[in-house]
Amino acid sequence: MASPIDPIHQFELKNLFSFGRIGNSEIAFTNASLFMFSAVGIIALLTLLATRDRAVVPGRMQSLVEMSYEFVASTVRGSAGQEGMRFFPFVFSLFMFILVLNLFGMIPGAFTVTSHIIVTFALAALVILTVLIYGFWKHGLHFLKLFVPSGVPIYILPLVTMIEVISFISRPISLSVRLFANMLAGHITLKVFAGFIGMLATGLGAFGWIVGILPLGMTVALTALELLVAVLQAYVFTILTCIYLNDALHPGH
Amino acid sequence: MSSEFVAGVIAGGGLGWLFDRLLGTSPGGLIVFLLLGFAAGTFNVVRAAGATGKTGSKPYRS
Fold first, then answer.
1. Domain boundaries, chain A
2. How far is residue A123 from each of residues A30, A101, A163, B22, measured CA to CA in Å?
């Protein structure tokens, strides 16, 4: 069951300590909570300490923080316009949180919080609720124009509107599934290929040690790929958030 | 890309299931909304594919 080469074993939640129960569900501090708290702590420490000096010529850490700020700011300006900058704190927190959690997952033995769909779905629901609440607050019922594309003949307009509504409902699902599936699949693949090395070495003896070089090379290559995926998926989540926020800012199109 | 399509079908199916549950029209709602979800999923994919080549202020609108 919990053999060391079981590729699913790494996603198991462990209760570190329990706060008691509410109804039938236990309220516990799990390893997922631990990693989420440390991600927030590291982001806060990094941004606060690195920018403390406020040097005109930034040091190594300060330029790291300034680069991530500029990167997210240009993404927000590019997809949601200058008005979108009012959501900058939200988008920056989302990006840094997902990025740090994804990169934590790349540390061998660490837990990948973003490989749990409930976490990614909570983040996606946060984004969509922000879009809905801000859209209705800012534009009132004009926000519903988002679902009625202009320039469509009247006889297929109801059908297109229905498809647009379902397409909007599918947004939080695709947003959460994309991040979750990429992280889950990548970590399982890594673990499977790494498991081959051990199996070959124990199963085939000296011959296995030589053949084991192949999955070892694969694991090294996959680690590099996963590092790319970790950063890329954080960016994809961010840019899609900006595009959805743009819909809330300008619903007519 | 594939998650766009799957999400459309899931959203349509879920909506149809809820519709049937609330109005007792099983299985009519599920069939209609699954087909609509299929269309919405295809629409999502087409939009996502069109968005890759462009970098404008509205990359998701073709």
1. 28-249
2. 18, 13, 24, 28
